[in-house]
Amino acid sequence: MSIYRNHPWESYTILSNPSVKRAIEQGKITPLGLGGEKMQPTSSVRTLYHPEMDWFAKFSINVRLTNCVRKNAWYELDSAVQLTSILKPIRENEQLHNPVFKVMTEPYATTLNLERVAERHGNDNTKARESFGILYRENFSLSEVDILKPTLAGALFAYDRNGNSCIAQRLKSKARTTQNRYCDMATLWFERYLHCLIPGVFNYYFKHGVAFEPHLQNTLIGFEQEMPCCVWIRDLEGTKLLPEFWPEDSLNKLSERARQSVYYSREQGWNRIGYCTFINNISEAIFFIAEGDEPLEQTLWNAVQRAIVRWQSVNGKEPELEALLNGGHFPSKNNFTTRLMQKADKESGYSQVAAPWQQREKGAQHV
Fold first, then answer.
1. A biological process (GO) annotation for this entry (predicted)?
2. Which of 33, 85, 137, 190 could disulfide-link to 56, CB 3.0 to 4.6 Å?
């Protein structure tokens, strides 16, 4: 007998599935209830962690958080594993050239197939397959945990239970210890963070046609002497590819449905990385670091501008970045209206927010 695990929150959905009920009646499945080692939930709740496991375990929970039901769609189980294999040469090459930007792989997935138990219940079988789906994501080594102290960006750029900025508290302590002014320490820390984040995101997108989702919940930061020294990007099943870099024959390991799910146009890809990187990551970092100090806030935004210029000076100009530097806008995803109109995430609209280094009137333009 083999034991198969699922997230406790998903057990109610699983046990109410007609195909699962039929499998239980036939003695193919026996519910065992709660058991095993205690696991720690990560920010997504459905991804669980144990320091002695080689993998994070990403389970399905049929709960809608923001715009998406947080289940492992059957085609995502396929695409995440295949993308790990497909992107391996790029990842190894980028890791050598830019070791401070790390991508967490998802090389394995498991699920249960109940088609032989309930052949005529295709939709129920698919739902069961998704409910039982588990993605296995690369875990940190014990030395990485001890030395680099990986920390979720969303846990740093946030308020603590007393209403204090978590990152500001850290920076104030570091400034006192090193006898620096807060604004100087904050600027240095932030520039180190940009150095770890921006080149990697841009390299994958503009050089390889790979659009990650580097928002606060998908970005983890490693530290040396309390200063950023690397970042990890996770959530490979949410990664998208640009067809001009990835013709269909290069993705022949993917099913047709999985291939459709990973393809984004260049505009969609730029909206994705532009929103996640600048709005849902960097702007939050600046907000919690500056704490309303407008001169410091402007200093940090100017550092973002310099980071973009620096990347282009080495790698060449890209139209999206040139537009941004010359009076352009950041794409800001309209999550509320996307959910209100019940649109797929791929169909989200975006509001265009003027780059803060531009001397323009305040406000956003909706598109």
1. siderophore biosynthetic process
2. 137
In a domain, 359, yes or no: no
List own/partner pairs for 267-272 with CB under 8 A and 24 or more apart.
Answer: 268/211, 268/240, 268/346, 269/205, 269/209, 269/211, 269/240, 269/242, 270/205, 270/211, 270/320, 270/331, 271/331, 271/333, 271/348, 271/350, 272/211, 272/213, 272/240
Q: Taking the model in full, what pTM does it have?
A: 0.91
Is residue 158 a contact partner of residue 288, using CB atoms and an 8 Å limit? yes
What's the pLDDT at 366?
43
Q: Which two tokens stand for residue 152?
A: 């979720």
pLDDT band with cut points at 50, 70 and 90 for residue 361: very low
Given strand 219-224, what is the order of strands in its sheet?
101-103, 227-233, 219-224, 151-152
In a domain, 2, yes or no: no
pLDDT digits (tens, 9 = 90+) for 327-338: 889 999 998 888
> Which residue range is the domain that position 147 belongs to?
14-354
Q: For 120-162, write each residue's pLDDT tens digit.
A: 667 899 999 999 999 999 999 989 999 999 999 999 999 999 9
Residue 96 lies in a domain: yes
Spatial separation of the C-alpha atoms in residues 189 and 173, rounded to whole Å: 13
Answer whether residue 4 is part of any domain.
Answer: no
Supply 289's token pair: 């670091």
Q: Pull the structure tokens for residue 70.
A: 């947080």
Task: For residue 112, give the CATH number of its domain.
Answer: 1.10.510.40
Number of domains in the chain: 1
